[in-house]
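Lab notebook, page 48
Experiment: co-folding of the full assembly
Goal: obtain a model of how the components sit together before planning crosslinking
Operator: M.T.
Materials (sequences as entered):
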Amino acid sequence: MTSPEMWFTLYAIAGKGAVHRRVTMTTRELGAMLGVSQQTASRRLAECVRAGLVLKSHSVNGTILQLTEEGIRELERVLQGLEAVFAPPRDEIVIVGKVTEGLGEGAYYVDIYAQKFQEALGFRPFPGTLNVRVIDEESRRAVNMMKKSPPLIVPGFVHEGRTFGDVICYRVKVGEDINAAIVIAQRTHHSSDILELVAPVNLRRKLGLRNDDTITLRVVPLHRA
Amino acid sequence: MTSPEMWFTLYAIAGKGAVHRRVTMTTRELGAMLGVSQQTASRRLAECVRAGLVLKSHSVNGTILQLTEEGIRELERVLQGLEAVFAPPRDEIVIVGKVTEGLGEGAYYVDIYAQKFQEALGFRPFPGTLNVRVIDEESRRAVNMMKKSPPLIVPGFVHEGRTFGDVICYRVKVGEDINAAIVIAQRTHHSSDILELVAPVNLRRKLGLRNDDTITLRVVPLHRA
DNA sequence: ATTACTAAGACACGAGTAT
DNA sequence: TATACTCGTGTCTTAGTAA
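Observation: model returned without errors.
Model output:
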């Protein structure tokens, strides 16, 4: 967990524009932003570097700073947290996205997890996933809200000496009556906007979907599942 | 300035849903969320109360907490800061809103500030303001971006023994060629979604605008003004 | 000008405990 | 059970200063 002080330091650096580019600033300046001395700012900065949140290099008049991927993710987490906090409480979480061509690997995994999915979701999944790309900000927030709701966890297992991790699922309804689930693989795709759907049927064929068609998903709360 | 610790405390409480309703929690629980002891959580909470960010009342099994307006604003500030930080750098800030009926007091103030506006903006303002209500999230973010850009400050003055404060302005273009300015009065309207426009002409008549008509404003960067 | 070390002082933390 | 007090301990901060 990132400490409050480190987080504030990160936020101050980001405020200078370090998310999109490298920025040059002095420790005195950073200290002023944080309301601490130059020395403390220097130390705080060093902490962020040690934690792998910031890259620092030296320049004649100041320090060149750049947020790392992890640093940016840290800020994104808080942004999403705040968005979720301010989102009006809703009964329904609705996600709108566009049908996207997958990498084809989905089918392989669905096949391996088929029995587990059957037990957890109550249906035998069609061997393939439908990939949905979230485009607008509203749906992106809806996805965050979904991820803050209690997930359905499909336990991992070992198969032929290989370990398959837990899979996080969220039940959704597609159209009026098709039950499906969004599955989220463990390996965190760097805040990917692509959702993978499994369903008891071939959604593409059943709904006559083509790439770039719009699809609407309604998240089903766990307690109602 | 809110300290990092206080801010984190606020954020933790908000995460429990205290933005929309009152929540009950123990100081032990809060401490666990913050990674500190029950005693420290208690003290942090007291700091937030002293700072006017949280309202606290006692209950048998825990503490009833509610964020104050100021506490919510504090979180909003960070949310907006993060949104601005993550927004892709753009050449143009575009705000779309709907024409709204004003309170009529705008004209009075424009009249009093007329000379000052003339000097700062380069045009004599039509005696009246056009009120524009921002509706969608995207424009709301655009407004935040605008507010993070360097403002044009019309200095205040004393007139007949009464003090008139500074006025913050942002130049905008309405349509293709009408120069106007968004004026923001000092007294902070609680994160109001209403913008007040001054222009050298009667925008309502010139553009044939009626209430609820959509209007598009393009913010003019100061260095290009 | 910078950054960052050392050392002394301030202050925050948590154990114990009263309520 | 709670919250919140005191107080000893230890960490964090800053002034001074080196590099």
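Interpretation: The interface with chain A takes residues 1, 4-5, 7-8, 11, 14-15, 17, 19-20, 35, 75-76, 78-79, 81-83, 85-86, 88-89, 137-138 of chain B (CB under 8 Å).
Next step: discuss with group before ordering constructs.
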